[in-house]
Amino acid sequence: MAFTTTLLAWSVIDFGRTMGPELPHAVSAVRWATDYLLKATAVPGVVYVQVGDAFSDHNCWERPEDMDTLRTVYRIDRPHPGSDVAGETAAALAAASIVFRSRDPGYSRLLLDRAVRVFAFANKYRGAYSASLRRAVCPFYCDVNGYEDELLWGAAWLHKASRRRLYREYIMRNEVKLHAGDTINEFGWDNKHAGINVLISKEVLMGRADYFKSFKANADGFICSVLPGISRTQVQYSPGGLIFKAGGSNMQHVTSLSFLLLAYSNYLSHANKAVLCGGTSASPALLRQLAKRQVDYILGDNPLGMSYMVGYGARYPQRIHHRASSLPSVRAHPARIGCKAGSRYFLSPNPNPNLLVGAVVGGPNVTDAFPDSRPFFQESEPTTYINAPLMGLLGYFSAHP
User: Fold this and answer.
1) What is the H or E stretch that residue 270 is in?
2) Tell me, what is one Gene Ontology molecular-function annotation carried by this entry (predicted)?
3) What CA–CA distance (Å, rounded) separates 257 from 391?
4) Cα 73–76–81 angle (5° rounding)?
5) Which among 128, 194, 273, 309 is least buried, having the fewest CB atoms inside 10 angstroms?
């Protein structure tokens, strides 16, 4: 949720001016999330990071109104650190403080002050939250990438929000920990590498931060690694042209990497620069074109002619892996549906009775095939961290078709 919030805020910061009448809704979504994160960080030296037991929740298929699974509350604190989740929470609060700087200065100051405090806690009491809370968060939400990137990511957003030398020096002191190589084109809730490089590179391209030039070099390397047809490309594409990375919920990579392509293209454009990939020059227009191709694919321009956003277009997923969508509403079925009684709806071949309009699912496999079946959760499950980067992309391309 913290990563979702950071990307929602970044979307508003970079693309809010193109969102038109949807901008207040975007800002409201950011505030809904930061109100929660403020509550979760209200006690100094403590961050509440999870409500509910993942094993009991995954064992049941029931409506939110009927839920009777454990509502255990999990936290990180000084003896049980979680620099990854605290670092991302600090990033979310700092990014959101920029969103509200002119809209609600008092709220903005509250967010920034809290981000400073949460980051200091994350940095001083170091460790991965899945080491402290392994039984509660693994294997579902394990940190497999370490926490150093979240600390750098939090510092980068705090630097952007506060302009304090403290964070600039922190970034410079810790940049060696951000290895390029295999992680150069990774960006998501567990891996911030490409996002850090693109975010910080804006400073270099604006001509006011030559001391960050290694991040610009890494950002350029990220661009070259995702461009199809370039010899150095490290990202796979489906026959229909969709970015594909191994693992679950591929659309999280599609939306996150496309967001970075678009953001970086804008930074390059304002600086009148391009990216050199060997003998090829990648212009800002080329990066925008690649990002737009991915968004068009999501919305239905693909071999199946299927939109992967529920409720959009003539054809979209009907059997998404989502309890409230797949079970009958309380109005249609007033009686309680127990933990295992929902299984028949989970396994049913029938379409979901309730449309989760706007939700983007994990998407097709590397051959562009899509099963549209609840048990195939990697393809059919929607997540907030798929949708959040897409908001900025849709805002931009709605204004620049």
Assistant:
1) helix 251-270
2) cellulase activity
3) 13
4) 160
5) 273
Long-range contacts of 290-295 (CB under 8 A, 24+ apart): 290/226, 290/227, 290/228, 290/258, 290/261, 291/258, 291/259, 291/261, 291/262, 291/265, 291/393, 292/397, 293/241, 294/242, 294/243, 294/254, 294/255, 294/257, 294/258, 295/258, 295/390, 295/393, 295/394, 295/397
Beta bridge mates, 276: 281
- Cβ atoms < 10 Å from Cβ of 341: 15
Residues belonging to the active site? 321, 372, 381
The DSSP element (H or E) to which 258 belongs, if any, is helix 251-270
- Using DSSP's 3-state secondary structure scheme, residue 87 falls into helix
In this prediction, residue 208 has a pLDDT band, given cuts at 50, 70 and 90, of: confident
Band of residue 181 on the pLDDT scale cut at 50, 70, 90: low
Q: For the chain, what is the largest distance between any 2 Cα atoms, rounded to a whole number of angstroms?
A: 66
Q: Report the C-alpha gap between 175 and 198 in whole angstroms.
A: 14
**Tokens 């979760």, located at residue:** 40
Q: Cβ contacts of residue 334 below 8 Å, gap of 6+?
A: none
Question: What is the gyration radius of the CA atoms in the chain, in angstroms?
Answer: 21
Cα 57 from chain centre = 23
The residues with which 73 forms a beta bridge, in sequence order, are 51
Work out the average pLDDT over 355-364.
98
Could you read off the pLDDT of 84-101 as tens digits, one per residue? 999 999 999 999 999 999
Q: Which residue type occupies 246?
A: A
Question: Are the CB atoms for 89 and 350 separated by under 8 Å?
Answer: no
List the structure tokens of 131: 């080491």
For the question of whether the overall pTM of this predicted structure is more than 0.85, the answer is yes
Confidence at residue 312, expressed as pLDDT on a 0 to 100 scale: 98
